[in-house]
């Protein structure tokens, strides 16, 4: 691996984890809000399960996704194993419970405030969902950032399903693992610094966006 | 207009209201009075349909469907949005994406506040936003739960003026109030709620001239 590859690897890390965060958010946020807004008997169990899934070991997720995508697996025909798509899929599985749980918590508080009003106004189920999601959007941003942070720093699952292939599936975390084992410690440390700066940059950008949003909204 | 027949409300094994048997007519302002915790709010919530009675039944003579009613909560729930968006909410939920709010804003003296964030408002302004939101759909029946709690005299007077103006246009109001003076000023008839049981309705003049036995202690305690 060369210094020249640094940009490519960084961009791939960013692309994979941002895609995974976007996909996971699209699933987890409506689901988390739905759990908060919709009263049903199994809610407590659903939330407990969700919270348990937050701690699921990424390596196990990687293994399961590997089995699903491997040539003899049920999704083998798609030919996704050892592509960035497989890595995105694994990260979506890892961070969806986290985003859903954080969304549920924030939406639950908001819903308890809004419930009487929205029931009184005969708001439909989908109107209730959209209202709490929109009014709680700052909490949703935090949830998305938490998911992104977990995704971009994750190595176990993407190593298994991506394979750390040069110019194809190598990202910052897998490159750090490789360079460390090769003894290129200085390069590994540099990659680590890039990773941290990247996480910080994404987080700061997101917060800058909410501040402008707040001025316009409030 | 509405009749409760042995309606009761229980939650977690506690009795919040009832059994209440009560019939309310179709005009003016009915005040629901009584000690704190006696079940006034529960009575309003049951009448509005927010809480289903756990026993007994509720009958509407000339059905006032949910879309024709609105409810102003004791602690007004304002969305974290502008005054305009808060007042427009009931219309937007009904599919009117760009409602004209100039009349309603004028009626509740909110014109100059429409673009302010609702969280920045004072107590009196918040209450006027909640009232405007309740009336923006021009409902036939409005429930007000302590509309002037925590308001000073000027703000109370402003809210009472708004309420009186709506009644002049034919609004039907069922409200709770802890202020005997306010009830005297506004209400045509009075329902007394004590320990979950409802008494009345009594004509307001008669209620204050010679309070019924159930309400006598409450009358003597307050102002």
What separation lies between the terminal Cα atoms of chain B?
31 Å
Strand content of chain B: 25-35%
* Rg of Cα set of chain A: 20 Å
What's the helix-strand series of chain B?
A: EEEHEEHHHEHEHEEHH
Number of helices of chain B: 8
As for the number of domains of chain A, it is 1
Largest sheet of chain B: 6 strands, mixed
As a percent range, the share of helical residues of chain B equals 25-40%
Count of DSSP strands of chain A? 0
> Any idea what the CATH architecture of chain A is?
Orthogonal Bundle
How is this structure best described in words?
- The complex is a heterodimer of chains A (218) and B (223).
- Chain A is mostly helical.
- Chain A has one domain (5-217): Orthogonal Bundle (MetI-like fold).
- Chain A has helices at 6-37, 43-54, 58-69, 84-120, 125-135, 137-152, 156-162, 172-182, 185-217.
- The longest helix of chain A is centred in the middle third of the chain and has 37 residues, at 84-120.
- The termini of chain A are far apart.
- Chain B has 223 residues and is α/β, with parallel strands linked by helices.
- Helices cover 35% and strands 26% of the residues of chain B.
- A six-stranded mixed β-sheet of chain B has the order 5-6-7-3-8-9, with helices on both faces. Chain B has a three-stranded antiparallel β-sheet with strand order 2-1-4, with helices on one face.
Give short descriptive properties of this protein.
heterodimer, A: 218 residues, MetI-like fold, 9 helices, globular, B: 223 residues, three-stranded antiparallel sheet, 35% helix, 26% strand
Provide a quick synopsis of the model.
Chain A has 218 residues and is an all-alpha fold.
SSE diagram, text form:
The complex is a heterodimer of chains A (218) and B (223).
Chain A: H1 6-37, H2 43-54, H3 58-69, H4 84-120, H5 125-135, H6 137-152, H7 156-162, H8 172-182, H9 185-217
Helix pairs in contact in A: 1-4, 1-5, 1-6, 2-4, 3-4, 3-7, 4-5, 4-6, 4-7, 6-9, 8-9
Chain B: E1 2-11, E2 14-24, E3 29-33, H1 40-48, E4 55-60, E5 69-72, H2 83-93, H3 102-107, H4 123-135, E6 141-145, H5 153-168, E7 172-176, H6 180-186, E8 189-194, E9 197-203, H7 204-209, H8 213-221
Parallel strand pairs in B: 3-7, 3-8, 5-6, 6-7
Antiparallel strand pairs in B: 1-2, 1-4, 8-9
Helix pairs in contact in B: 2-4, 4-5
């Amino acid at each position: 691996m060369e210094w020249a590859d640094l940009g490519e690897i960084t961009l791939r890390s960013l692309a994979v984890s941002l895609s995974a965060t976007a996909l996971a958010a699209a699933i987890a946020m409506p689901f988390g809000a739905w759990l908060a807004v919709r009263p049903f008997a199994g809610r407590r169990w659903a939330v407990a399960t969700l919270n348990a899934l937050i701690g699921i070991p990424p390596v196990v997720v990687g293994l399961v996704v590997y089995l699903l995508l491997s040539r003899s697996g049920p999704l083998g025909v798609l030919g996704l194993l050892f592509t960035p798509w497989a890595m995105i899929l694994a990260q979506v599985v890892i961070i969806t419970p986290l985003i859903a749980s954080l969304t549920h918590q924030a939406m639950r508080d908001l819903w308890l405030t809004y419930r009487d009003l929205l029931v009184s106004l005969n708001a439909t189920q989908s109107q209730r969902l959209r209202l709490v999601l929109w009014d709680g959007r700052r909490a949703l941003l935090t949830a998305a950032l938490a998911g992104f942070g977990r995704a971009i720093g994750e190595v176990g699952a993407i190593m298994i399903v991506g394979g750390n292939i040069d110019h194809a599936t190598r990202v910052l975390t897998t490159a750090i693992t490789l360079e460390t084992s090769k003894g290129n410690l200085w390069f590994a440390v540099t990659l680590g610094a890039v990773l941290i700066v990247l996480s910080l940059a994404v987080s700061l950008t997101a917060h800058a966006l909410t501040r402008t949003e707040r001025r316009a909204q409030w | 207009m509405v009749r409760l027949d042995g309606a009761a409300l229980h939650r977690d094994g506690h009795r919040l209201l009832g059994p209440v048997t009560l019939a309310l007519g179709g005009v003016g302002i009915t005040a629901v009075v009584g000690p704190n915790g006696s079940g006034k709010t529960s009575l309003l919530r049951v009448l509005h349909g927010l809480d289903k009675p756990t026993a007994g039944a509720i009958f509407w003579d000339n059905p006032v469907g949910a879309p024709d009613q609105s409810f102003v909560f004791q602690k007004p729930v304002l969305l974290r949005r502008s005054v305009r968006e808060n007042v427009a909410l009931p219309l937007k939920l009904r599919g009117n994406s760009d409602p004209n709010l100039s009349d309603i804003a004028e009626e509740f003296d909110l014109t100059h506040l429409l673009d302010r964030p609702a969280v920045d408002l004072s107590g009196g302004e918040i209450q006027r936003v909640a009232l405007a939101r309740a009336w923006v759909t021009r409902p036939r029946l409005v429930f007000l739960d302590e509309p002037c709690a925590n308001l000073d005299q000027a703000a109370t007077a402003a809210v009472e003026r708004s309420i009186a103006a709506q009644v002049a246009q034919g609004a039907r109001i069922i409200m709770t109030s802890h202020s005997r003076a306010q009830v005297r000023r506004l209400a045509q008839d009075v329902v007394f709620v004590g320990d979950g049981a409802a008494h009345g309705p009594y004509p307001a003049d008669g209620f204050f001239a010679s309070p019924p036995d159930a309400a006598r202690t409450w009358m003597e305690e307050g102002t």
